[in-house]
Amino acid sequence: MTTSTRGTKVPAVLVLEDGRIFRGRAYGAVGETFGEAVFSTGMTGYQETLTDPSYHRQVVVMTAPHVGNTGINDEDPESGRIWVSGYVVRDPARVPSNWRSRRTLDDELAAQGVVGISGVDTRALTRHLRERGAMRVGIFSGEAVADDAALLAKVQAAQHMKGADLAAEVATKEPYVVPAIGEKKFTVAAVDLGIKGMTPHRMAERGIEVHVLPATATAEDVYAVNPDGVFFSNGPGDPATADGPVSVMQAVLARRTPLFGICFGNQILGRALGFGTYKLKYGHRGINQPVQDRTTGKVEVTAHNHGFAVDAPLDTVSDTPYGRAEVSHVCLNDNVVEGLQLLDQPAFSVQYHPEAAAGPHDAAYLFDRFVSLMEAERA
């Protein structure tokens, strides 16, 4: 239950499942919300972060102290709604300033029922999550505020992210088509596990007609569009629950159709090849994560949003049911697997976001790599 309050000083409380408590003021909607507490290191792009379906059931802590400076516009959303379950900022902008701004971030959060908190020491909160790991959290404001013990009990009764099957909750329910920009060169079937709007746009820019399919799509649905390539998107939840998409990807691999996956799609490819997945301590979120493309040696600054990773050997080629596979990209901060590629057929994936909205464009070439695979297959 939430209510809307704008520009007030309604008290708010943030309660972590380990008992740590932060106090501040209501920001956005007033009420209560629960989710997994994670932090994002991006200094810009808050609108894209809020509307990224991969943040479903997560309470996002912004490490940048000033948030909301450019307001909210109608051009930058990555989906049709805000997906974060809660929002935590230190110093919200009092007055937004940008020629595209249509309304304040505070108003947008309130209009969409997103409970937030401001005036929090986000540096201390981020350090706590780095040391203790991502954990369940609740934000309470207005009439939802009660004694600390009662609020902690509510947080500890909330659902865990591990074991959560969420892709179908955020994916499209009906197929739709994003037409190629200019001359149509290829058709791609994109399995929507929580796709961001910029992703099919990046493919359309390269002459690809993208058929976006629900997360529940079958292999028959995929091949009904007669695709030149198949794409598996980003998305929320635990990849260990995604048996359906894994089965579809295995069917694609068996037919040797050019394949590209990002983020959740990378984890699906890992599982399809026989590798395991695991939950990271606090994940990678933000637009400044260093990754090395081991196929070229190039280091890229990349945009991330993932709390799970693939468990694959970094320095050896692995034999899989679909040929040899290797780790193609690695995070330079912690050696987490950031990409996979098959050596005997046209399939690869990365753990980060080459569509980079918002963020750096170092990895945009990956869409060109996908096009090259389809060109080679056609030839």
Walk me through the structure:
Helix 1 links the parallel strand 3 (21-40) and strand 4 (58-62). Strands 10, 11, 12, 13, 14, 15, 16, 17, 18, 19 and 20 form an eleven-stranded mixed beta sheet that branches. Strands 1, 2, 3, 4, 6, 8 and 9 form a seven-stranded mixed beta sheet that branches. With 379 residues, the protein is of the alpha/beta class. The model has no long low-confidence stretch (mean pLDDT 94). Helix content is 22%, strand content 34%.
Strands, helices and their partners?
Blueprint: E1 2-4, E2 11-16, E3 21-40, H1 46-50, E4 58-62, E5 66-67, E6 86-88, E7 91-92, H2 105-111, E8 115-118, H3 122-132, E9 135-141, H4 148-156, H5 167-170, E10 176-178, E11 186-191, H6 198-204, E12 208-213, H7 219-223, E13 229-232, H8 243-255, E14 259-262, H9 264-273, E15 276-293, E16 298-311, E17 318-320, E18 323-331, E19 337-342, E20 347-350, H10 365-378
Parallel strand pairs: 3-4, 4-6, 5-7, 6-8, 11-12, 11-13, 13-14, 14-20
Antiparallel strand pairs: 1-3, 2-3, 2-9, 3-8, 3-9, 10-12, 15-16, 15-18, 17-18, 18-19, 19-20
